[in-house]
Amino acid sequence: MQKTGAHRVRPPHPRDRRPQGEARPVPPVPRSPAAFIETLSRQRGVGADREFESFLALPEPDPTEVFIGMTTYDSLRANARIQRNPKVVWDFLRFARTMDLKAYVYVRPVEGPPFDLARLAARPGEVLEVGVRRVTDPAGFDATRPPFIELLSGQPGVGDSWELEVVKGKDTAGLTVGMTVYQDRQAADAAIGALREHPTTAAYFATFEPVALQYATSTTNH
Predict the structure, then answer these.
(1) How many domains is the chain built from?
(2) Which H or E run contains 54?
């Protein structure tokens, strides 16, 4: 069975180490990702855990810094069992109070090469593009995505791409997730510039609303 991943895209909360202008006010709490990740990583059925820091968002820049967290699970059943662990729940609730989520989904790869979170954009300088999209035209999305991915993959410095099915999460109606790896920031910038005004890009982007479209680099290399 392919692994299922929890995919968290989050701006820091104002009580986090950086300010967040639009966050909801909550009582002061410490930022405690380490405690949660340490507890989670000890659970049976949990694989790699990674965090990426976004340096660019499209179509509009984020008002504050955004982090992307991903965890692999052996299955949804394993995830459900882990979520019944009181220690995991307690540490997660403390962690969740320190952030506002842009997206929170569980995904399964359905297209692309074998997916290995531990090696995903793990080389120094590599960039990970993560797109969480709310599809408004499913037929158009299915028709325009393959030529867009072909165009993107042909750009210098562009690596593997994946399409991931959303199988669980928060407000998931119409959500899909795509990921692409770039050799470095220069390659990502060049690809964005080359594709921005291309008619293939326009046709593809007209089929969905971007929930989170982030370009990020790894903060953890497990």
Answers:
(1) 1
(2) strand 46-57
Q: What is the DSSP letter of 136?
A: S
Q: How far apart are CA 86 and CA 185, in angstroms?
A: 41
Q: Give the CATH number of the domain where residue 167 resides.
A: 3.30.70.100
How far apart CA 15 and CA 23 sit, in angstroms, is: 10
Low-confidence ranges of the chain (pLDDT < 70): 1-33, 221-222
Give pLDDT, residue 26: 34
Angle (nearest 5°) at CA 44 between 39 and 48: 70
Give the residue ranges of DSSP H helices in the chain: 33-41, 76-82, 86-96, 138-153, 185-195, 199-205
What is the C-alpha separation between 37 and 32, in angstroms, rounded? 9
Domain that holds residue 61: 4-218
Asked whether 27 and 16 are in contact (CB, 8 A), the reply is no
**pTM of the entire structure?**
0.83
Q: Which residue has the tokens 């562009």?
A: 158
Alpha helices in 60-136 (DSSP H): 76-82, 86-96
The closest alpha carbon to 10, from 104, 90, 107, belongs to 104
